[in-house]
Amino acid sequence: MIGSVRGRIVSKTPPQLTVDVGGIGYELEAPMSTFLHLPPVGQDVGLLTHLVVREDAHVLYAFATEGERRLFRSLIKVSGVGPKIALALLSGISVAAFSQCVVNEDITALTRVPGIGRKTAERLVVEMRDRLQDPAAPPGAAPLAAGHSPEAEAYDALLALGYRPAEATRLLKAAGPGTHSTEELIRRALQGAGRE
Length: 196
Known about the structure:
Elements lengths: L3 E10 L2 E6 L2 E6 L2 H4 L8 E10 L4 E6 L2 H10 L7 H10 L2 H9 L3 H5 L6 H15 L17 H11 L4 H10 L7 H14 L1
Parallel strand pairs: 3-5
Antiparallel strand pairs: 1-2, 1-4, 2-3, 4-5
C-alpha cells in the first residue's frame, strides 16, 4: 500500500495530477478540496494517498489532510458508494459539513452534491452515522472523524483493528483521563481489552 507521496508537481488537471517522486511520475486523482491547497506546477508537495486496486486498473487517490483520507476510506465501505462518488462528495462538501449532515440527517444538503441522489444520501446517513459519531457523545457533539486529536486517532486505530465503535469508545474511556499521546492511548486501550 502506498500511504503518501512527496515530490514535484508535474501537472494538475482536476481531478488528476502527476507528482514526480525521484524520477517516477505518480498519476493521482484528488478531490477539489485537495486541489485548492496545491502549490503551483513545479513546486514540491506532500500528499496522503489511498490505493484502490480494480481488475482493470490501480488508482491512487490523493488527499491534503488525514480527515479527507479517513472520510474517503469510510465512504467507499458504504454499499453502492465507490471511489468516484466518494471523490465527488469530498469535492462538493467539507469533511466537517459532511459529518454535520450525517449527524443532523440532512438528506437535502447531501443531494445538492453532484452525483448524489436521494437513495444514496439516505444510505450515507444510515451507514455513516456509527462511523462518524462517538456513540457515547451527546447529540450534536463534534464527530470524532473530523478531529485530529490523539483520542480521535486512537479511536480510528481501534476501528481499523476490528473493534466496533461502541467497544472502541468504552476502551478509550477505560484508558483513563489525562493528556496522552495517540500511541499511549492505543496501548492502554489494548491492555484494558487484554484484561477483559
